[in-house]
Every structure is written in structure tokens, then in C-alpha cells.
Design goal:
Helix content: 55-70%
Number of strands: 0
Largest sheet: none
Shape: elongated
Order of helices and strands: HHHHHHHH
Structural class: mainly alpha
Strand content: under 5%
Number of domains: 1
Number of helices: 8
Distance between the termini: 30 Å
Length: 192
């Protein structure tokens, strides 16, 4: 997904989608009430195809694989029940941890860079090993065509990164526009 797509993240591909996401709540000072963000995230999960893909069984399988790999490697990771839970918490944490426009702008830029790298790597691996990712079968099983364990691991991690960054950038792009009154544009500069 290009940065232009993020800035134009005005969903509308479902029956109740035409109204758009619910409005963000604001406190007395006009700051975004983070308690209103879950409703926005749920709207995207229900009506935006690029975000809803997080709920697909193949994405869930890759996510569960990634969690198991992280735990097996001794990483201290929170065990989420579902991929969509991980997405939602990540979005709320991104807003809480990047509370100014330049900080959120930088975070979205980092997501897009990670997405670009993961997409390019997956495209190369998919071509090199003739992986069938369009057939609807298990991505984890399809990755078995990659001869090295490290290659399989990198591919599956990049699959997760590609999906997560796409979804997170879509939602954060919309939130950015709502919060700051202008779309996210990669080359933006901010007064010091």
C-alpha cells in the first residue's frame, strides 16, 4: 500500500460502511479520548478490506506461528488470543506513545517503510520458490517449499509484518487526518 493510499483511507466497502467510521471522542480540552478509538478500529475491521484481512484464517495462522516462534526463542511477548487483538492494541499504543503530530507522522512513515521492505522481500521469495499465495491455502504450509529454515522464518515474519503494517497504517492514517485536520503526507515538515 502506498502512502497515498494511507492518506486517502476513507473506507466505504460494506453495507454500513457508507457512513464511515464513528466519530472520535474528545475530552474538554479537545484532545482525542483514547477510549473512543476501539470503536474506530472495530469499524475498520468490519468494513475495510485491507484491515479486515487480519481476521482471515491464513493471517491468523501466520500470527499464531509468529507468537509460537517468539515464545520458543525465549522472547517476552504478550500472548494475544487473535491477530486482530494484536492490531488493536498496537494502534492504541501507537497513539499513546506518539502523542504529537510529528511523532505520529514519523511512526506512520516507519510502518510504511517496514511494509515496503516486507512486501519486496516476500515478492522476491514468492517468485524464487514459486509459492502459491493466491490459492487460499495455508501460507505456513506453502512456506515449506522454501528449503532453509531461516528462509521460511523470514518469509513468514515478513507475511505478518506486511499484513500488520498495512492494517495499522490504514487505521492510523485515518486517525491522523481526524486528529490533525489534514491527511498524512510522507514529505511533511513541522515547525520546530
Amino acid at each position: 500500500m502506498s502512502s497515498t493510499e494511507v492518506s486517502k483511507a476513507i473506507p466505504g466497502n460494506g453495507n454500513d460502511a457508507s457512513a464511515g467510521p464513528p466519530p472520535l471522542g474528545r475530552d474538554a480540552a479537545g484532545n482525542v479520548d483514547l477510549d473512543s478509538v476501539p470503536d474506530v478500529i472495530q469499524w475498520f475491521l468490519d468494513f475495510d478490506q485491507r484491515v479486515a484481512i487480519v481476521k482471515h484464517r491464513n493471517v491468523e495462522e501466520v500470527f499464531q506461528w509468529k507468537q509460537q516462534q517468539s515464545q520458543a526463542a525465549g522472547e517476552q511477548v504478550f500472548a494475544f488470543n487473535r491477530a486482530e487483538d494484536r492490531l488493536a492494541i498496537g494502534i492504541v499504543q501507537a497513539l499513546a506513545g506518539h502523542a504529537t503530530e510529528p511523532e505520529l507522522h514519523n511512526w506512520i512513515s516507519q510502518l510504511l517503510n517496514a511494509l515496503d521492505s516486507a512486501s519486496k522481500a516476500n515478492e522476491a521469495v514468492t517468485t524464487a520458490y514459486r509459492l502459491d499465495l493466491q490459492g487460499g491455502g495455508s501460507v505456513v504450509n506453502e512456506a515449506q517449499k522454501i528449503p532453509s529454515a531461516r528462509g521460511r522464518e523470514d518469509f513468514l515474519i515478513n507475511c505478518w509484518i506486511e499484513t500488520l503494517c498495512t492494517a495499522e497504517a490504514r487505521v492510523l492514517g485515518w486517525l491522523y487526518k481526524e486528529m490533525y485536520g489534514r491527511p498524512y503526507v510522507p514529505e511533511s515538515t513541522f515547525p520546530q
